[in-house]
Amino acid sequence: AQSVTQPDIHITVSEGASLELRCNYSYGATPYLFWYVQSPGQGLQLLLKYFSGDTLVQGIKGFEAEFKRSQSSFNLRKPSVHWSDAAEYFCAVGARGGSQGNLIFGKGTKLSVKP
Amino acid sequence: KAGVTQTPRYLIKTRGQQVTLSCSPISGHRSVSWYQQTPGQGLQFLFEYFSETQRNKGNFPGRFSGRQFSNSRSEMNVSTLELGDSALYLCASSAVAGDYNEQFFGPGTRLTVL
Question: Would you tell me how many other CB atoms lie within 10 Å of the CB of residue B100?
């Protein structure tokens, strides 16, 4: 069955420190991969997506993610975290040729930023 | 361009009642998807509509239904509410269906069932 695992429920980093949020997926083939961010009381905002090509994907707000097929991972990184990055982050996978409605989301990682 | 709007933002209902939530997509977008977000189950896909037709449906009971109007606005209805239906209901719109494009999410409707 298709699934997405975000092993870290909650992460706290200091402002200015680097960040890596983990995402592992289980899928029959190479899926489409997404990272979304959700601030309190807000909907989801797309940070970046991987469809094909270069496995290092650049997104908005200084985020990047790397697709590693051998590890079935799509980890999100940021070199220097800002206090405004505190939010919940969701990894999602979807079927190629499928409907964009059929996204499978991980349970999310809540990021706290220490001053 | 205005974003995805959802009304109402907050709702409180009692068990057994029914509720209707509304979603207005970004102008020009014809695909609308609905998701349920709960602390226990996370984000789960409910259904997707495109050009007034349901294209996909998630694994939810028949109490959950939806529709889309000719202006692409969508509504979802939950009948015979249960306590477990308390959740944040998110709507997302995109320009086309059938392939992955960027979905734009609304702020959600927070439903509380007492």
Answer: 21
